[in-house]
């Protein structure tokens, strides 16, 4: 990101808060000013001690000044801190709003842990830059200018000497500051790697343990932590260089002013008092210059964070109302699906997955998609749901191109059960109503019975309120599948997409589910990626796919007779994976 873009992005986050930051800065300045008035009041107090005047009023004024000064300063500090938190909140809200709307290909290209760290850790770094550094820059800048003007009034030559040294500091800063930014960005990237590595480990925790990979994964996470430490230390080192160059500059200017000023006093160019006053101003300069350096280094830290935040904000999202169609009247009854010469590749750099897929499915009824692994069956579902856009041809639902649907309306018509039947951390109830927010108790009960979950819920001490653990870890594989099916049914879909699990269900369960699906397919269009003979024999129509093309469409009996690949599949793969009770 260019410096201009970084500045604009940071300013965008700061802008809504600019008046409140100005107020906070004003309070801080007033607090500081009352601090300056205290020595004056103290002087008056001491003066009165010498005479016989009463000191009560001065004491009262002094006390009031102390109390007022402290109060105003702390209110100012509170306002600034609060605003800093609001800046972080606003950045998080925007990011969160976008992340959960990302297009699927963007998520598949990213690491979830990395995306998460942008919301949690990078936004935190915005805190200081948008408030503290602005206040430091403004108050430091103003005091700096005022001191320089006063110095100029004292002696232009000595000012020239001082400015010469300050320009040198500026040069050092120009070298150091980008290094602070770079080190901070690397440190943040390493923090993201920690999240990514942990997410990977927790995502497959059983496999991790079973593979005895704890040591290796721990080493990987530790390496990332050490990387973060290294870059954090590097950033600290450059910040220390920045600070020490300020200290050094002041010392050098002090010596230079002392030397050159001394010579000027000796030659009679300036009186001694001017030299003394100038030196005092030089010491006054320490504070504003330090503030300016602080502001600049904070800005570098913030700009490293904002670069990562902006990159996440630029990832492509999908809008629920995307597409041009009018969805005023949601259609009723079973949906129809058609593919017209659909070509598709997941990414431009990957080979084509669909090389012209065509089929037509009237509703209702069950259609099974079969074919060797990698034939492109699951991809059909991804295109119907419009997780991905076809690169050629048309995908039609209800005779209408999916690109003309709004994604919200399109997906509202569909119930989708993924192959690995994801269950989310939370209660059983939350999992069921995940796709159907307003489902009634009766609907939930009905769907539990249909998916064969009623007895499980009865057995559980907390019933529907039972927590199912991370990814449903407290449920069996079969139970997870049934929960996923119940969830999809509760959505009352007009089109049910079922990516059958390759793993075995026990015979009783499989029969029960088969009945549910058969029953649903009487009213709803059901598409199943089938791995079991029991499913295909039940299907009204079978679409045989091979290497990104549709090879044949027909009934089980017809295909067994006519299509050699299907015959082979039916004889080997299906038979091997069909459970005895279901045949
Ligand atoms: N998200 C993705 N990004 C890139 N390539 C993908 C993605 N998903 C699938 N593929 C590739 O696309 C091809 C078709 O995959 P698809 O999942 O549609 O096959 P399938 O017929 O459903 O296979 P299976 O029966 O094994 O589930 C495969 O070669 C796969 O490697």
Automatic annotation (TrEMBL):
The chain crosses the membrane at residues 58-80, 125-150, 156-177, 240-260, 266-286. Its main location: membrane. Residues 22-300 form the ABC transmembrane type-1 domain. Residues 337-572 form the ABC transporter domain. Keywords: ATP-binding, Cell membrane, Membrane, Nucleotide-binding, Transmembrane, Transmembrane helix, Transport. It is a multi-pass membrane protein. This is ABC transporter ATP-binding protein. The lineage of its organism: Bacteria, Bacillati, Actinomycetota, Actinomycetes, Kitasatosporales.
């Amino acid at each position: 990101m260019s410096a201009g873009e970084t500045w604009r992005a940071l300013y965008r986050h700061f802008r809504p808060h600019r008046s409140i930051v100005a107020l906070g800065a004003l309070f801080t300045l007033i607090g500081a000013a009352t601090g300056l008035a205290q020595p004056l009041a103290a002087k008056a107090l001491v003066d009165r001690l010498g005479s016989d005047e009463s000191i009560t009023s001065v004491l009262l004024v002094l006390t009031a000044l102390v109390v007022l000064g402290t109060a105003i300063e702390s209110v100012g500090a509170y306002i600034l801190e609060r605003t800093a938190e609001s800046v972080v909140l606003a950045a998080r809200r925007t990011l969160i709003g976008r992340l959960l709307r990302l297009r699927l290909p963007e998520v598949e290209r990213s690491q979830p842990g990395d995306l998460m760290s942008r919301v949690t850790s990078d936004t935190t770094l915005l805190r200081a830059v948008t408030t503290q550094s602005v206040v430091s820059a403004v108050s430091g800048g103003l005091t700096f200018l005022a001191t320089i003007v006063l110095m100029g009034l004292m002696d232009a030559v000595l000012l020239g000497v001082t400015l010469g040294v300050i320009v040198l500091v500026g040069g050092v800063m120009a070298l150091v500051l980008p290094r602070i930014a770079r080190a901070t960005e690397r440190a943040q990237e390493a923090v993201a790697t920690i999240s990514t590595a942990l997410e990977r480990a927790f995502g497959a925790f059983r496999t991790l343990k079973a593979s005895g990979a704890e040591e290796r994964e721990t080493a990987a996470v530790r390496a990332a932590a050490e990387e973060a430490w290294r870059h954090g230390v590097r950033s600290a080192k450059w910040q220390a260089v920045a600070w020490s160059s300020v200290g050094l500059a002041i010392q050098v200017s002090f010596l230079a002013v002392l030397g050159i000023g001394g010579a000027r006093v000796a030659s009679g160019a300036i009186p001694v008092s001017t030299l003394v006053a100038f030196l005092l101003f030089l010491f006054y300069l320490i504070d504003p210059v330090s503030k300016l350096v602080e502001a600049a280094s904070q800005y570098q830290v913030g700009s490293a964070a904002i670069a990562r935040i902006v990159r996440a904000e630029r990832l492509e999202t999908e809008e629920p109302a995307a597409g041009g169609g009018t969805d005023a009247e949601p259609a009723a009854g079973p949906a129809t699906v058609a593919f017209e010469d659909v070509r598709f590749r997941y990414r431009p750099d990957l080979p084509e997955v669909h090389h012209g897929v065509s089929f037509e499915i009237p509703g209702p009824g069950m259609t099974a998609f079969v074919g060797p692994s990698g034939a492109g069956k699951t991809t059909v579902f991804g295109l119907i749901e419009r997780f991905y856009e076809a690169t050629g041809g048309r995908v039609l639902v209800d005779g209408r191109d999916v690109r003309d649907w709004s994604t919200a309306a399109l997906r509202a018509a569909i119930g989708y059960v993924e192959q690995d039947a994801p269950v989310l951390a939370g209660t059983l109830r939350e999992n069921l109503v995940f796709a159907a927010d307003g489902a009634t108790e009766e609907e939930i009960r009905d769907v539990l019975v249909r998916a064969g979950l009623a007895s499980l819920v009865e057995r559980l001490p907390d019933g529907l309120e039972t927590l199912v653990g991370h990814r449903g870890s407290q449920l069996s594989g079969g139970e997870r599948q049934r929960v996923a099916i119940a969830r999809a049914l509760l959505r009352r879909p007009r089109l049910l997409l079922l990516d059958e699990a390759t793993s075995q269900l026990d015979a009783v369960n499989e029969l029960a589910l088969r009945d549910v699906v058969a029953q649903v397919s009487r009213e709803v269009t059901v598409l199943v990626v089938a791995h079991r003979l029991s499913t295909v024999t039940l299907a009204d129509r079978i679409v045989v796919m091979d290497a990104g093309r549709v090879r044949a469409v027909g009934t089980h009996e017809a295909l067994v007779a006519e299509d050699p690949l299907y015959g082979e599949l039916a004889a080997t793969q299906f038979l091997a994976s069909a459970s005895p009770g279901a045949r």
